[in-house]
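Researcher: I need the complex structure. Ligand is iron/sulfur cluster. Inputs:
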Amino acid sequence: MILSINIVENDIFNMLLIAAIYLGIFSVAGLFLVLLERKVAAWFQLRLGPNRVGPWGLLQTMADALKLVSKELTGTIKADKFLYNLAPYFVIISSLMALAVFPFTQEFQAFDINIGIFFLIAISSIGVIGILLGGWASNNKFALIGAMRSGVQTISYELSVGLSLVTMVLLTGTLQLSEIIEVQKSGWLIVQGHIPAIIAFMIYMIAGTAETNRAPFDMVEAESELGAGFHTEYSGMKFAYFFLAEFINMFIIAAIGTTVFFGGWLSPFGITESIPWLGIFWFLGKTFALVFLMMWFRWTFPRLRVDQLLTLEWKYLLPLNLLNIVLMALIVWLGLTIQI
Amino acid sequence: MSYFGDIYKGIKTLLTGMSVTGKVFLNNKNNSITQQYPDNRETLKMFNRFRGEVVMPHNEKNEHTCTGCQKCEIACPNGSIEIIWDRQIDPESGKKKKMIDKHIYHLGMCTMCGLCIEACPTDAILWAQNYENSVYDRTKLTKVLNQPGSKIMPGVED
Ligand code: SF4
Ligand code: SF4
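Model: Output:
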């Protein structure tokens, strides 16, 4: 399936069509990510995971989604109705918007702007407004604490995500995602930038996991202390939006990692260069490897305390990141990069 | 330089943790502990210490080892056991002695505490490992543990 998507004809119909296709693909993909998470969790815990609905339980999350759609939307009486209803859309729209800029293959990219990375960083911070709104408007102390924690966490770790990506931008010299991949035709950036790139990648993965509010950084919805955190008061489809957004965000973090560090749709050593449409499989393969890494984190490490979370960011990740940028600048300046 | 030492230690311990879970992940297929319950009804065996319900085993001659001493009845904290007993002439010795008529056990009330089994001096009652104990009629939960026509195994009381 190759869609030659170019926003050359500035056609409203085309835009709607592309939007519908993206929404369709990614809401289904989000559901399967949930399923993957449950399966991986089960395997880590010596269980089997969902295996009743459909072959190997493949339709389990579809059934769950249908159940959620059919559920009543409840809420608190004293909630701020407008903000309360707005919050889930804020979260899901901001995560879906970020998907538009990824180059899945050479041609399959909906929106190739020249500030791609900047756009991604900006959009991924908007989601937190939705979380803050949700927590505030629910009028529930657990939701409020969860939302405030989310604010602290996202503001702190946003810095590390941004700076580790800036480190890589020093190498590429461009913010446009398609050009970043073009640069990597002479070696993936993690190879080109060797030591500082690897440090940047590690920092990116840690901070990225924190950005998506996943364990071990899931203080936002720490079940054991906050009920369900910021979405305590949401039910049915609104809850499903939050849930889906979390998984799409995970995909986005992994996809940025793939694009910036592992050459996006490029195949290793150019083995399938003659068949460009295979790029999508390389892209998804690398992305899912990173998603798996994040799931591996989740099912290995215990949750951090808030003070530990802030110590990790401000005392370790941030100074290391700044040093790393200097190191990368030196390497680029002295021409010590590895070019294949 | 404990700062860099901490970083090194942190990364090392994180990797140790990940290798442990990674090994579990890779070996999962062979030793997954999940039971596929309704499917494996025929083969599923509960472990020995499982407490399903109290039963009184009988041998092939329909004999049990309950002397009717009522210790289990006294031990039960919630009165789940009732013993209906009688003094009858023992056909062998010709003496009058205490014998159980019915050893009644209310499974619906039992908390599976096991005190009755602890208390029994002749090990006449035991735990069974069955687990599908739900019924539609709660009178079915009142059970008579000694089988009809059963008698005490000779020599138990000596
Ligand atoms: S297990 Fe406990 S509650 Fe049940 S019959 Fe025996 S003593 Fe009573
Ligand atoms: S079951 Fe045991 S304790 Fe209970 S009456 Fe019989 S011999 Fe006594």
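Model: Summary of the prediction. Residues 76-334 of chain A form one domain.
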